[in-house]
Amino acid sequence: MQTTNNTVLITGGSSGIGLALAAALLEAGNGVLICGRDEGRLAEAKRQLPRVHTRVCDVSNKAGREALADWATGSYPAINMLVNNAGIQRELDFLAGAADFNDSESEIETNLTAGIHLSALFLPHFLRQERECAIVNVTSGLAFIPLKIVPVYCATKAALHSFSMSLRSQLAGTNTRVFEIAPPIVKTGLHREAKARRQAERGIAPEVVARETLKALAKDRYQCIVGQAKSLKGAARIAPLFFHRLLNKLATR
User: Fold this and answer.
1) CA dist., res. 123 & res. 19, Å (int)
2) Against a cut of 0.85, is the pTM above it?
3) Sequence ranges of the domains in the chain
């Protein structure tokens, strides 16, 4: 797929991987739209990347997703790429019971439901175009070997991985391609809780993920496993239970 002259919407684009990807796509000669929940962060992103177009949107909200799709396709009819990047990661202890689960719906809605719903909303517009289009889903190495302190996050990324494979098969023979980008731990603001933040300190820069994403698009590499996430995918094939225990043991250090 060509990596220039596209019009791209990136969810969760005001920081982290989304912002790095916006910068890389702009530099490559694309039009870029980003959305996020925080108006202040979007304003800062606009200051850093003056050519980016911004929209305040909480993708965990169904009406918000519908309004986002209407805005993007109506205001920028040339749009031909959707990057489902928005994500929330929460530490969740099921031993604490249902009280600790209260906010997990937004994690499921943001990480999984939003990507599925937005794909459904944008696909009719993409399929009517006479050019190549793409849906890019950002999953995680934790889709293959889960980390126990963030169980819902891992489950949503595993489900988005599965959805990407199924959607890719459904769209075979059309003008729309489905890419999956699975990074390892990345140094972003995604990791809100202390344990996850400590792990993030070992992570790679979001700019590395952005560069690998553009390479994957250019080479039609529909599944792009970045850095150490390759080890997790390989481990899932060999001895998933053993490596799950090992990963979780290392995570406690």
Assistant:
1) 24
2) yes
3) 7-251
